[in-house]
Every structure is written in C-alpha cells, then in structure tokens.
Amino acid sequence: xxxxxxxxxxxxxxxxxxxxxxxxxxxxxxxxxxxxxxxxxxxxxxxxxxxxxxxxxxxxxxxxxxxxxxxxxxxxxxxxxxxxxxxxxxxxxxxxxxxxxxxxxxxxxxxxxxxxxxxxxxxxxxxxxxxxxxxxxxxxxxxxxxxxxxxxxxxxxxxxxxxxxxxxxxxxxxxxxxxxxxxxxxxxxxxxxxxxxxxxxxxxxxxxxxxxxxxxxxxxxxxxxxxxxxxxxxxxxxxxxxxxxxxxxxxxxxxxxxxxxxxxxxxxxxxxxxxxxxxxxxxxxxxxxxxxxxxxxxxxxxxxxxxxxxxxxxxxxxxxxxxxxxxxxxxxxxxxxxxxxxxxxxxxxxxxxxxxxxxxxxxxxxxxxxxxxxxxxxxxxxxxxx
Length: 386
Prior knowledge:
Elements: E1 4-8, H1 12-24, E2 30-35, H2 43-51, H3 56-59, E3 72-75, E4 78-82, E5 87-90, E6 93-96, E7 99-102, E8 107-108, H4 116-122, E9 125-126, H5 131-141, E10 147-153, H6 163-177, E11 184-189, H7 201-213, E12 216-219, E13 224-228, E14 231-234, E15 239-241, E16 244-248, E17 251-252, E18 268-269, E19 282-284, E20 289-290, H8 303-320, E21 333-341, E22 344-351, E23 359-366, H9 367-384
Parallel strand pairs: 1-2, 1-7, 2-3, 7-19, 9-16, 10-11, 10-16, 11-12, 18-20
Antiparallel strand pairs: 4-5, 5-6, 8-17, 13-14, 14-15, 21-22, 22-23
Helix pairs in contact: 1-8, 2-5, 2-6
C-alpha cells in the first residue's frame, strides 16, 4: 500500500520538509503539503521592506508546482489535527496520514496587549512581522521628523530574536538618510534582561553596546501592561510616551495546535535530536515547537533552525515508513544576521546545543555579512518562485 505523508504549513520548515521527503520516498508514496495561501516571505526580507530596500512584491515567496514537483499542494485552512485518528480536518474536507509533519509557524496576536489594536488603527503603532505591516511602518518612518520612536517587544517567545533590535538599527539608518536622526529619539523595550538572552550574556551585552553606539536606548525587564493615550504602561508602573511605536506583537500558537493534545501551552514539545513528538508518526518543526536546550532554555524561533530541523525530520519520516536511509540528527547549530545600516551586518552564530550553555559568537559588522544575507534571500526566492 502506498504511504501518505502530510506536511502542514508552507513556510521555511514545511517547504524544505516536503521537498526532502519527496526526494527520499518512492514515487508511489504521496506527499501532501497543506497551506492556507502558499504565499509568504523570509523574516530577513521584512526588515529590508521596513528600511525601504525592498517592496512587498520583490520579496514574496509563492511556491510553484514546478518547485514542488511530485508534491500535492492543497490550499486550505486547517481546522483540527486529530493525532489519535491520524487525520486533519480542513475547510475542504478531511485528510488522513501515515506520517505527519507539523510546521504551522507562530501567529501574532495584537489583541494580546490591551490598547494595541487601537494604536494600530490610529496609525501611531505598526509592526514589521508581516509584509503589509513592514511596508506601512516604512511609510510612517518616512513621515516622522521629530519626537520619540519606541521599539517594543510585547511578549516572549517571539520569532527572530534579533529582529526588534535590527529593526531599531535600520529605523535609525532610515532616519539618518533623511537627515532627521538627531531629532528623533529611539528606545527599545523588552521583557528580557538582554537581547537574544538564549545566546548568552556576551552576545547580549555586545548587542546592547551596538545599540548604544547608534544612540538607541535599551530598556530591559520591561513587561508591557497596556498601550494607552500614546504611552506604554508597564507592569512596574513606568509610563513611557511615544510618537511612533514599532512593536513585536505577542506570539501565540496557531489555533489548530490546541486540538492536537500535544503540550499544555499550545507549543509542541519535541525530542531535540529527532523533532519527534509524543504521538507516533508525528513530528513538529520550526516555530510551533517547544525544544528545550541542554541549558534548560528554549531554542529560539528562527528560520535557520526550521530549515535544519526539516532535513532531520524528512529522514525520520522515511525511516519510520520502512525505508533504508541514513539517520540524521538535529545538531542545533545556527545563527542570524543583524543589519546596522550602511549595507553592513553583524552575524551571530554558534552551537545552541553546547553544554552547559550555547556557544555563540557575535561577529563585528561587515559588508561580507550583508552580502551573505543578500545571497541567502536570493537563493530562497529563486528556489521556490520558479
């Protein structure tokens, strides 16, 4: 009997997992990829849209049947995931599986902070975790000539741990290019003690210094309570006014994850080496996962990890279905780039599975790292938009 592998989500993890599974399985086995839209973008591209170096159309990822040859692309909203019955329910009907890969990402929730929706509606706040949001925030930054720009991390965990601070640096670069940087104060607020805390204190401290060198204030341990009347109200009773707010909205697990019965908070616990869940024949990758590092902290939610996890899971799926392929184990190595403007980028990279704590280095900004990031984006667009 032919097998059916079901991959949920057409982001970084889902695309790589489906493609790699297809390569490993014989032609008579089916690989189904389910996504609500089959349209997205890399997180790194969002920040370039914010800066104005890209527009929405230039960075859209629209996977084609040619790029996903041999894979059934099913455009549908997923409603429930029943791991006991081994089937999902979508708006288009039910689908059964022999092996399941969950790669649905993380959803942003503006309603998670009282008053944030109103600030979005009034135009005093924006976000850069969607293409439309990044483009709109770019236009608002082009219209501010004075006052205070606040960068707010509204909750943890969130995707791309460096993104809020890279966003602050690129906003400063945009304002500088307009000749108004000296008239706009920029401050970053986060509930964490340091930026990118999982990477360790050395990386966090170096990133704070980078912000300070660009005259960007850093305010740690600031947990937001509400946004009201043009001000951030924190749980420590501090009130910080702003003229424009760029926020990382709270992140939550996509709604279908609550129907799996896997995990208690919606995020899915997985084995660190194999990405297997507690349910037989079910794996999870990318932002949906709760992967605990040897340090006891969670693996950051980042595309580089989703891609590596997808390669590992594809091999696990093939072996589970009885095919003789070499075993692969996720190594926990990865990193990201941090643009500072002027076509320069720093790079944080290392072993997140190191003991007793991740061994990560933040390398100084250079045009080389910026060029690497440009190449990464181009490779991804060319891979799926053909």
